[in-house]
Description:
The complex is a heterodimer. Chain A is an alpha/beta fold.
Amino acid sequence: MSASPPPVPPPDEMRDIFRTMTLIRRFEERAAEEYMAGRIGGFLHLAIGEEAAIVGTVSALRADDPLTSTYREHGQALARGTDPRAIMAELLGRATGICGGRGGSMHLMDLDRSFYGGYGIVGGAVPLALGLGWAARYRGTEQVSVTMFGEGAANQGVVSECFNMAGLWDLPMVFLILNNQYGMGTPVERAAAAEDFFPRAAAYDIESWKVDGMDVLAVRAALSEAARLARDERRPACVELLAYRYRGHSMSDPDTVRAAEEKERWQARDPLVTFERVLLGEGIMDGDGIAAMQAEVAQVVDDATAFAQESPEVPIAELADGVYAQPWNDDARGSALMRP
Amino acid sequence: MSADSATVTYREALNQALREEMIRDESVFLMGEDIGHFEGAFKVTKGLLAEFGEERVVDTPITEAAFTGLGIGAAMAGLRPVIEIMTVNFALVAMDQIVSNASKIHYMFGGQVSVPMVIRMPGGAGHQLSAQHSHSLDAMFTHVPGLKVAVPATPDDAKGLLKSAIRDDDPVILLESEGLYGKKGPVGGEDDLVPFGQAVVRRPGRDCTVIASSRMVWVALAAAEQLATQGVEVEVIDPRTFRPLDLDTLAGSVRRTSRAVVVDEGWPECGIAAGVAAHLYEACFDWLDAPIARVNSADVPMPYAKNLEQAAIPQPADVVAAVMSTLAREVPR
């Protein structure tokens, strides 16, 4: 009954996966440049190194499966098909941004693509995902709510509360613990009592397991199975992905805590390099094809950046627009409403 | 309210609102601790599980943060959850969901999605429940842009404000009063909504404006009776919602009476009374003949002992004294 993708995707999808991973890598590198140039403010959390986890996950889902994420979520939006122009413009705080310059890097959302947003409080979006799963079951749709959060969030009490309710009510949900092994600068062994996080979900009667988060096909297969459980058997699932982010927690983190040797060891398993070898080895792409794809992606990122830089700022007059979906009079604009 | 309306309790009025809106709109569901089989800690949801079933009247584990967040997510998907937090005291556990998610999602994501949900919870002191079960946290919620805050004082307003809240596209905090559940009065019918941002004059008067909400309305009205015997006629105004606040009506009254007292069951520092008084100073400074007086709960954690608790909560005598202070008069003995 389900249209879950096959374990090994067809060649055109393999090429799409690789292109999306490449797009995320190039987009993030450009975002770092824009940050260093002072055109992006606030926090900028880069997902370089986590492309397999992101694209493997999104490629296993249906387009209308609600997806929620953390503040490290540019890649999720890109993988869902959000226009890179609208994302880069949001990062630059422009009127053309996907959230009109109100959210910034940490709070992208693309409702048209069922991407329900990036959230800044660690673990705070997991209850929302529970509600999206609840709504799917309430309405009798086949949607599966998928929420990505880090191993740091798994230590937040509210996440355990959500495991319990999802297990208790058999909600159509997939919990995805992206274990990148650091909560900001604190390694897991100094933050968690046990090495693995997926058994925590198992304690609430949720089927759960761990896979290599640097291998896009392994991630995709795991998420396909997790989504199948949730969609077809109406049982929640939890997948822990072991991965690594190459950059610091955010651009303001000089990343002096982690050993160079450790970083090199993980970068030797780079998800893009690994997957490129697979594509070449199986004859799905050749060197020229890859070069052409990389040039096209570079062009997309150049275009998105130029678009963002040239986009207008948000008019100050619109500062208080949108505080409420249903303002109570024509002048209803934030706290200004409270004036006579 | 309709002329033939029946007299019901505040509790029954809330129940009617829930039932009518659940019949009207299938996207409305209720969720909270012990609201189904137990029919609510205060019996507000009595009979609703039997009528609507377990999919729409949902008993939760004791996990305020998670089920409040669940409600927010369900609202983002277009449902209209009514979340009951057993008392306002437990909302503190869910404050991250309410403040970081519910209030911000519409603005932060550029208006792509709204959060049409209601969070109902009773608060207030007076039952010797001591420090952790007697909060009036109206000011905390009112502080937050993106939330709407309704504070019904009568059965009619309890029903009408809850119905408005359920039909509203924004997150609404409905603060009920534990001390009012048994209060009786007439209520409106199925289509009688009480709009947000419209204060009501509970008692007209010319000498001083007394602003009070929820259970404090009844404290203010008792004070008004006592003051009338001294020849002092106060105008008691109930804002009914703190966000939006109907400052036009409040300021209009103060400009006529030239005096104001704000009664608030919460603490004095940065509280509702402080905020309302600040608005009134900005709007009415040239009309005022006396400093605005505030009547608040004492600036202490609520004590258990009955005499201490009563001393900590605003009483009619405190309102009488505050009014007399604005008139530069001694309180008669």
